Amino acid sequence: MRRYFVGGNWKCNNTLAQTQSLINSVINKLVFDTNKIEVAVAPIFLHLPWVQANIQKNVQLAIQNSSLTKMGAYTGEISVEQVKDFGIPWVILGHSERRQFYGETNEIVGKKTRLALDQQLSVMACVGEKLADRESGQTTNVIQAQLAAIKKELTIEQWSKVVVAYEPVWAIGTGKTASPEQAQEVHAFIRGWLKSQIGTQAEQATRIIYGGSVTEKNAADLIKQPDLDGFLVGGAALKPAFADIVAAANKGR
Ligand code: PGA
């Protein structure tokens, strides 16, 4: 069976003191069954050394982006070799904020995903449609194109280290969550895509998590959906509400 997965994407938030307080007051007090659920949080790069030394052992670490280039003369970048060397297991790639503000195309996201997987990192690969896509009936076409660009770069085996995060762009940071039915419809589409494009193993084993204004109020209803295996949480991951979201996933369907 698929283990539930909850990611906390802290984005470019928090001073070091705020991150320390979040770790001490929320993250290190999380209680969950690691046989049933995996939890990973993604602080900014600069906070990682402190976080890594002080976080409870059941919570894993992720970074929010990695470089399209390897180690070398690439000013301002952090490469997947360095991430691996530092002992960070997870990378979030293809987040809509990276696509929207930093020009990441489907092709770039596919290439970054391969670089990370080639270093044995695990990837939360984000896909999702904009409001205009949804309103014009393009949701599944957009998602299919985003997934195809990743497929193009990966071997079938590498999919075992991918968690797909469905994050409708219109729901991110807006307070507008996809309804459980809307989320399930897209999650089922993604699962069908995994079956037809990658294989039954990937269909059955790949976690498909939902992101977009997940809160302690809607998590329990969302997790009841059969193809929804957890959450990628932004705003609520910076608050005590994160503990309630983890608890909802730990309780499960
Ligand atoms: P949000 O962000 O929970 O604040 O909507 C989710 C995300 O961007 O991953």
UniProtKB/TrEMBL annotation:
Q: Name one GO molecular function term.
A: triose-phosphate isomerase activity
Q: Which residues form a coiled coil?
A: none
| Entry keyword set | Gluconeogenesis, Glycolysis, Isomerase
Task: Report the Pfam families cross-referenced here.
Answer: TIM
Protein name listed in UniProt: Triosephosphate isomerase
| GO CC terms, sorted | cytosol
- Record EC number: 5.3.1.1
Q: Which domain of life is it from?
A: Eukaryota
Q: How does it assemble?
A: Homodimer.
Q: Which InterPro entries match?
A: TrioseP_Isoase_bac/euk (IPR022896), Triosephosphate_isomerase (IPR000652), Triosephosphate_isomerase_AS (IPR020861)
Kindly give the PROSITE patterns that the UniProt entry links to this protein. Answer: TIM_1 (PS00171), TIM_2 (PS51440)
What is the originating organism of this protein? Answer: Paramecium pentaurelia
Specify the pathway: Carbohydrate degradation; glycolysis; D-glyceraldehyde 3-phosphate from glycerone phosphate: step 1/1; Carbohydrate biosynthesis; gluconeogenesis
- Report whether Isomerase shows up as a keyword of the record: yes
Top enzyme class, one word, equals isomerase
The text of the family note is: Belongs to the triosephosphate isomerase family.
Q: Would you kindly state one Gene Ontology biological process term found in this protein's UniProt entry?
A: glyceraldehyde-3-phosphate biosynthetic process
Reactions catalysed, as given in the entry: D-glyceraldehyde 3-phosphate = dihydroxyacetone phosphate
